[in-house]
């Protein structure tokens, strides 16, 4: 079963998801700013049910692992047909962006903001694994990019796929109203806040629950406010993610 969501014409960003659970999409990406951008055609999404590419009557997509073990492994011949089909589905443009095939996996490279900024300019095929994973030969044959959300395990690649798409879509022109706000976010690569966690935010009222907003934020002095925010970002990063400080110095 194929499910197409506004993919009839070229868009700024396109993704095709190979999954056993197409009903999980667009999920939260059909809401708020990402959902509005989807309706406007700024980006597009298609899901493919992996079982549709199995050839036996039971629509089998997995088999026991060679060498033993308790888990099942997704079959390479089924995934290969699905991937090759997905490649034919992207809208054709005069300046065709490159296609990257992504496999979310705990052993993948960590997803970073610079990687997301690269992927937002590409066409993505995201293979959502289940069970013990997929046959290594399909990863090697298609030169997949293995990526990881972090050092923890989730049940399948669908949540990771949603996270990757959300991170890409919000960077597209026309999605976030005040696009200059992106430059001061955590990990924004084109600002002094690169490789820093974001500074604290405050809003009205200025005094709540025996806690006051820092006076510098009420001063109207933009230079002092910027300096305070940068210092706070550095302090928070040093306390919570000292590895980022270390990488910056290397």
CATH homologous superfamily name of the largest domain?
A: SPOUT methyltransferase, trefoil knot domain
CATH fold-level assignment of the largest domain: Alpha/beta knot
Shape: elongated
End-to-end C-alpha gap: 49 Å
Gyration radius, rounded: 22 Å
| Secondary structure category | alpha/beta
Order of helices and strands: EEHEEEHEHEHEHEEHH
Just give the CATH class of the largest domain. Alpha Beta
Helices, by number, come to 7
Describe the model:
By secondary structure, this protein is α/β, with parallel strands linked by helices. Helix content is 29%, strand content 20%. It has helices at 32-40, 76-87, 113-119, 136-141, 158-169, 222-240, 242-249, and strands spanning 2-5, 13-19, 43-49, 62-64, 72-74, 99-110, 123-127, 145-148, 207-208, 211-212. The strands form 3 sheets. Strands 1-3-2-7-6-8 form a 6-stranded mixed β-sheet, with helices on both faces. β2 (13-19), α1 and β3 (43-49) form a beta-alpha-beta unit. α6 (222-240) crosses α7 (242-249). The longest helix is centred in the last third of the chain and has 19 residues, at 222-240. It is elongated, with a radius of gyration of 22 Å. The protein starts with a strand and ends with a helix. The model has no long low-confidence stretch (mean pLDDT 91).
How would the blueprint of this fold be written?
Elements: E1 2-5, E2 13-19, H1 32-40, E3 43-49, E4 62-64, E5 72-74, H2 76-87, E6 99-110, H3 113-119, E7 123-127, H4 136-141, E8 145-148, H5 158-169, E9 207-208, E10 211-212, H6 222-240, H7 242-249
Parallel strand pairs: 2-3, 2-7, 6-7, 6-8
Antiparallel strand pairs: 1-3, 4-5, 9-10
């Amino acid at each position: 079963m194929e499910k197409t969501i506004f993919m009839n014409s070229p868009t700024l960003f396109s993704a095709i998801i190979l999954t056993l659970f197409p009903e999980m999409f667009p999920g939260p990406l059909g809401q708020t700013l990402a959902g509005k951008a989807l309706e406007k055609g700024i980006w597009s999404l298609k899901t493919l049910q992996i079982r549709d590419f199995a050839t036996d009557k039971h629509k089998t997509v997995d088999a026991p692992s060679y060498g033993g073990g308790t888990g099942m492994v997704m079959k390479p011949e089924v995934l290969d047909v699905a991937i090759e089909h997905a490649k034919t589905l992207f809208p054709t443009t005069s300046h065709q962006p490159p296609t990257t095939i992504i496999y979310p996996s705990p052993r993948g490279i960590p997803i970073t903001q610079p990687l997301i900024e690269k992927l937002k300019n590409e066409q993505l095929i995201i293979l959502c694994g289940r069970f013990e994973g997929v046959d290594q030969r399909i990863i090697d044959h298609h030169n997949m990019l293995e990526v990881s959300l972090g050092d923890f395990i989730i049940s399948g690649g669908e949540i990771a796929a949603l996270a990757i798409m959300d991170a890409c879509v919000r960077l597209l022109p026309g999605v976030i109203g005040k696009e200059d706000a992106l430059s001061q976010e955590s990990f924004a690569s084109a600002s002094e806040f690169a490789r820093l966690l974001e500074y604290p935010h405050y809003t009205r009222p200025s005094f709540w629950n025996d806690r006051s907003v820092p006076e510098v934020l009420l001063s109207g002095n933009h230079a002092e406010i910027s300096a305070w925010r940068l210092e706070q970002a550095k302090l928070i990063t040093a306390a919570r993610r000292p590895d980022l400080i270390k990488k910056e110095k290397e």
